[in-house]
Structure formats: C-alpha cells, structure tokens
Amino acid sequence: MVKLIALTAVKEFEKKTVELFRKASIPVWSVFNIDGFKNNPEDSLESKWFSGASQNVRSIMVFSFVEEEKIDHLINELEKFNQNIESSNPIRLAVLSVEKFI
C-alpha cells in the first residue's frame, strides 16, 4: 500500500533529511522551502509542528509517495536523529493514507 509522507524540518537539516530518505530506500521525493510560524504557545499539534520561536523559521517541506514498508525504517531513523540533536526544532513527519492514485 502507498502512503503520502510529509516531513518538515528547519533548513539546516535539509542534508540530513536527504540522508535519512536514502537510508530508508525512498528513491523519489520533492522539497520546497517554507517559512514556519508559531504564535500559539498552547500544547497542541500546531504548537509542536514548528520551532518554539515565535518568529518565522526558514524550513523545508519534503513529500513523497512511499510504500508502507519503508516508512517504519524512516520513522526509526528520524526518532534516533531527533533524540540526539541539540535543537528545539526536531524533524516532524506525518503519514497519510492514499485512497486512490494514478
């Protein structure tokens, strides 16, 4: 089954993101630059998606259609990476179901 993954990271982690995708054998992905903002300090999904800072943060969004069996490997690698960084900006990943695709 194919899933859509959407990953956000601060711009400084772009090379690491590419490395993680390669380790997970994900052959194709798209990257675009985004500015992340946060002005709501509540403990919600939105407050955890971007950095703890209220100013805009240069970030990237990466998305790809991926076979489900490759996602667990990517998640494991992301968890290891996020545990070992000295930053308040971990890499975030969302996995979405794809009902149909052509």
TrEMBL record:
Recorded superkingdom: Bacteria
Listed name of the protein: DUF3240 domain-containing protein
Organism: Namhaeicola litoreus
